[in-house]
Each structure stands twice: as structure tokens, then as C-alpha cells.
Amino acid sequence: MWDEPYLETCCRSALHRLSLSGAIGRRADNKDGPCLTRLETMGLAAQRGDGCYLITPAGDEWHDRDVLRRPRPR
Asked: SS3 of 15, please?
């Protein structure tokens, strides 16, 4: 049974861009700002004090599993 919330295509793309941004992060005033906010409520992103979003460990795991479709080593 599917027990995780659905991640819209736009939010999957925002998560991928967030992963690519690394320590620089993504600014909330970008086009994907609403998706970054949604990712934060899901625990997949976190907003720094300067307003930029970073990917969380949970976001990294989700990105690897559902965006890149590769299993994480255990």
C-alpha cells in the first residue's frame, strides 16, 4: 500500500534543482518557491536564516529513490 504523499511533477523538479544546488541552496523568490515551501512542510527541504532552501537528509533519500530511481546503500 502506498503510504507516502504524492509529489507533484513541479515539486519533483524543484527537489532535483535543490539537490543540484548543494550548499548554495535555492532562493524562495525563484519560480519554484511554492514547491520549496511544500517540500519544507514534508521535511524534504529546510529554509536557512538567509531565506535559501537546502535539501534535508530525507529529501536526499526521496530524491535518490523517486527522482533518480536508485536505491540508497544501507
From this structure: helix
